[in-house]
């Protein structure tokens, strides 16, 4: 879905006044929106931005310690395709848009070329007044800092001169590679009600893998007492089984930070801190600042592994509580770059329980339980099951294909099961990607693929010759 037209319009909409002792208070609410405007643009009332906004979101687009390699060999985590037509960062930006947050800074650094391009193309035309909705701040050198960003805290500190230009009261810090749907206004309301310096988002439930971002210990009023980074799973599970860890909640690495508190923490109290989670947040707790937690009970996945990425794509097909359901939520739509592709062409194909992106050519094939990305070409007799096909960045003309031994796409008679096929891959005829021996780990990058967690990953741009068996 492309961005709604209201981003280029001035309208009389409700705005909110921030008072330290109160919740969000509507300052002026029109009795009735213009009916013709609503019908013409088909824009839900929740998407109409307030005339005044006190929050700026800071989205971190990437990290150098990704476990999503080789999918991140030439792109950042946030730029990974998801659910056929989208990228991971679209979910985070859409959460901001749907929560009426109109100022978003994207701080990018590692393998950020495709991410920067996507953000500038997808959101550059969306403007509030004279200001862009999303402003990309790529890593840069200056007289004061001549190296790369050393971490999230260092990146914010070095960009404060830009961030302070916008008249806001709070910063909302967000990783750009998580998949979830959250109304940030509820998080902000909790932050303001508690008069907090920092509010952290935590999961209200526990899972075996909720240790990536540490755990917060809370009191009965949800005030943070202590933070433990990357706790040992055996200790956590033991505590859970003994029923003595109900006050510990897994961090989502999402924070609301008061602007003045942020400046003091980064420039006065911790001027050399590099990581916000590991250094600044524990420092704020030790200083006695008001640090509170907001519990979140919806779908959330941090997408920090190949298995998590594969699972999230496959679950996007299913309409269950475990799935990311924003694809079909008219009240919280998922935005992305409008590409103006033709509709997918299907010729005598059998497709079940799948998501098909735009502009594909599916010829007499069978597809089941699969996410098929944009511009994917599947030849006659091919069978694809339980896989993620990212698609192609471009179309090949007929004349060019005559000179290419194996064109981009999936060749005739090929079979693929439980695989991730990266973009622009050329799979020949009668290829079998089935992992029949159930190999769990294998690095064969030289031949264009790896296997991790039993999932076969075909590298971007790889060529798999006719008759190959993987």
From TrEMBL:
<dbReference type="InterPro" id="IPR011831">
    <property type="entry name" value="ADP-Glc_PPase"/>
</dbReference>
<dbReference type="GO" id="GO:0005524">
    <property type="term" value="F:ATP binding"/>
</dbReference>
<dbReference type="InterPro" id="IPR011004">
    <property type="entry name" value="Trimer_LpxA-like_sf"/>
</dbReference>
<dbReference type="InterPro" id="IPR005836">
    <property type="entry name" value="ADP_Glu_pyroP_CS"/>
</dbReference>
<protein>
    <submittedName>
        <fullName>Glucose-1-phosphate adenylyltransferase small subunit, chloroplastic/amyloplastic isoform X1</fullName>
    </submittedName>
</protein>
<feature type="domain" description="Nucleotidyl transferase">
    <location>
        <begin position="57"/>
        <end position="314"/>
    </location>
</feature>
<dbReference type="Pfam" id="PF00483">
    <property type="entry name" value="NTP_transferase"/>
</dbReference>
<dbReference type="InterPro" id="IPR005835">
    <property type="entry name" value="NTP_transferase_dom"/>
</dbReference>
<keyword id="KW-0548">Nucleotidyltransferase</keyword>
<comment type="subunit">
    <text>Heterotetramer.</text>
</comment>
<keyword id="KW-0067">ATP-binding</keyword>
<dbReference type="InterPro" id="IPR029044">
    <property type="entry name" value="Nucleotide-diphossugar_trans"/>
</dbReference>
<dbReference type="GO" id="GO:0005978">
    <property type="term" value="P:glycogen biosynthetic process"/>
</dbReference>
<dbReference type="Pfam" id="PF25247">
    <property type="entry name" value="LbH_GLGC"/>
</dbReference>
<comment type="similarity">
    <text>Belongs to the bacterial/plant glucose-1-phosphate adenylyltransferase family.</text>
</comment>
<keyword id="KW-0547">Nucleotide-binding</keyword>
<keyword id="KW-0808">Transferase</keyword>
<dbReference type="GO" id="GO:0008878">
    <property type="term" value="F:glucose-1-phosphate adenylyltransferase activity"/>
</dbReference>
